[in-house]
Amino acid sequence: MRRLSRKKTLNLVKELDAFPKVPVSYVETSAIGGTVSLIAFTTMALLTIMEFSVYQDTWMKYEYEVDKDFSSKLRINIDITVAMKCQYVGADVLDLAETMVAAADGLVYESVIFDLSPQQREWQRMLQTIQSRLQEEHSLQDVIFKSAFKSASTALPPREDNSLQPPDACRIHGHLYVNKVAGNFHITVGKAIPHPRGHAHLAALVSHESYNFSHRIDHLSFGELVPGIINPLDGTEKVATDHSQMFQYFITVVPTKLNTYKISADTHQFSVTERERAINHAAGSHGVSGIFMKYDLSSLMVTVTEEHMPFWQFLVRLCGIIGGIFSTTGMLHGIGKFVVEIICCHFRLGAYKPVTSVQDGHTNNHLPLTKNSIHSTS
C-alpha cells in the first residue's frame, strides 16, 4: 500500500512538472539556431557585466524636511586674504539679534604676500576649473560627496619659495560660532569696537589711499569642516579697481546631513550671489568700503544619503535579463524560420509549374510522357 501511494504521489508530481523533457532524438539542431544562440549568450554576458557594474555603483538620495534645530550654534570656517596690512583691517560678525562676534573669538590675522607663488597659482587655477564644471554639471556634486575624506585636501598649499618681498596683505583664517539667525560677516577698515547700537570700526586713523579690498577667498564654509568638499566661493579672487569699493556676497545657507559609507557629518551647503560697486556719495552710491558677506539660513534641511542596490534586486534584474533574452531570441528565431520557410516554399512551387508553349498559333497542353502513360496506352 505504501508503494502504491508513493507511486501515485510521484505520478502527481510528474504531472505538475512545468519543465517537460524532450528526448534527444526528437531535437533538431541547425546552423541558424546555433548562430542565434551564440548571439543570445553573448548579449546575456555583456548585459550581466553591465548590470554587475551598476550593482557595484552607489547613488545619492536627497530628502527634505523642516529644520527644527535653532538653538545650536552655527560654525563659520573662514580663510580670506585681503590686500591690506593687518593693522588696517578688522573682521567680525553682527547678526539680526544685534549680537556681535569679534574676530578675537576664533580668527587669526597673519601677514602674508598677496601674490601667489607658481604652485599656489596652479592650485587656484585648478580649483576655478572645478568650480566652473560644477556650475555646468550638477551631478559632479554627488561625486564630491562620495569622495569626501578620500580626496586630496582643498586647502591652499604653503608657499614653496622664500620670497624676500615684505608682506603686503593680511590673511584672516579660523572659525567663528554664531547664532542660527541671519547675519553679516564683514571685513572693513579699522578694528571693531562695541557700540550701544551695534558696533563701529576705527577707520579715521587709516589713510584713504591705503584702501585696497582686493581679496582672495581660499575657503568659506558653514558647519562641520569636511575635507574634500568644494564650496561655491573657494578659489574666488576679486581685484578692486577703486580705493572705495564694496564687495557684497548674499549667501543662503542650507543645513545638510551627509551620510555616506565613508563619513557622517552635519555640514551646510550654500548658494551665493555676488555684487560689487564703487562708493561715490556724490553719485548716490552710498555705503562703506569693505567685504560684506550677508548670510541667511533656510528653514529646510537636506539629508544626503549614499545608497546601494540590494542584492535581491540585483538577482531579480539578472533573472529578468536572462529570461527576457531567451524569450525574445526564441520568438525572433521562430519568426525568422517561418519567413525562410515561406520563401523557400515559394521557390519550390515555382520550380514545378507546367510548361506552356505556343506553336503555329495553337497551344500545346500535352504533358511529357512517362512510363505509366506509355503502359496505359499500350
TrEMBL record:
Ranges of residues in domain Endoplasmic reticulum vesicle transporter C-terminal: 167-331
Domain Endoplasmic reticulum vesicle transporter N-terminal: 13-98
GO BP of this protein: endoplasmic reticulum to Golgi vesicle-mediated transport; retrograde vesicle-mediated transport, Golgi to endoplasmic reticulum
GO cellular component terms, A-Z: COPII-coated ER to Golgi transport vesicle; endoplasmic reticulum membrane; endoplasmic reticulum-Golgi intermediate compartment membrane; Golgi membrane; nucleolus; retrograde transporter complex, Golgi to ER
Protein name: Endoplasmic reticulum-Golgi intermediate compartment protein
InterPro entries according to UniProt: Erv, Erv_C, Erv_N
Keywords, comma-separated and alphabetical: Endoplasmic reticulum, ER-Golgi transport, Golgi apparatus, Membrane, Transmembrane, Transmembrane helix, Transport
Organism the protein comes from: Phascolarctos cinereus (Koala)
Biological role stated in the UniProt entry: Plays a role in transport between endoplasmic reticulum and Golgi.
Similarity remark: Belongs to the ERGIC family.
Keyword check for Hydrolase: no
Entry's localization field: Endoplasmic reticulum membrane; Endoplasmic reticulum-Golgi intermediate compartment membrane; Golgi apparatus membrane
Its membrane topology: Multi-pass membrane protein
Lineage: superkingdom: Eukaryota
